[in-house]
Amino acid sequence: MGAIYYGTRTFSKHVGYFGPVQECVNCQRSYKKAYVKYSSWFHIDYIPIVPTKTVYFKACPVCGHGVELKSKEAKAEMAGGDDGSQVLTPHVKHVLSKKPKGIMKADNSYELWLKDEVSGEDILIAGDVEKEVIKSLKKERGYKKVPTEKVE
Asked: What is the value of pTM for the model shown?
């Protein structure tokens, strides 16, 4: 007879970029705010059964500085729609991907970048971090598939 696992799990989803272009008070870059939806679900044996809570987070797409919004507030702010004028693509660079085994115990050679497709600018989000930090940043910002580029 097996054990039954239950609890809650939170899923994140990047919704899009909405609203006017604003300067961030933290990093002084001007972009539309990124909206990320966080849904908490009650699960049994890791199968989501019932949603328990949904919140949105409105943040600067570069530094992540922002505020939490209730669902009604976020939906009202996103009602205008995403016009597609801002295209930011995340990607990961693995700087020491060809390093010999055993040189560094911890591989902190990952960098998370954001490419502005309109201006062509590459913006460094996090540098010199481990793979686990990149995974947590992807989850925090709601990115699902982020390509990894190997840099020698």
From this structure: 0.82
Tens of pLDDT, residues 40-99: 999 998 889 999 999 999 999 999 999 999 999 999 999 977 777 899 999 999 887 666
Hey, is 45 helix, strand or coil? coil
CA torsion angle 86 31 40 68 (round to 10) = -150
Looking at the fold, whether 59 and 118 belong to one and the same domain comes out as no
Q: Pick from 3, 17, 12, 10: which is nearest to 82 by CA?
A: 17
| Structural domain count, the chain | 2
Domain range enclosing 72: 1-81
User: What is the distance, to the nearest Å, from the Cα of residue 76 to the centroid of all Cα atoms in its chain?
Assistant: 22
- 96 and 130 in a single domain? The answer is yes
DSSP 84-100: S---EEEEEEETTTTPP
Q: Which of helix, strand or coil describes residue 71?
A: helix
C-alpha span between 31 and 4 (Å, rounded)? 46
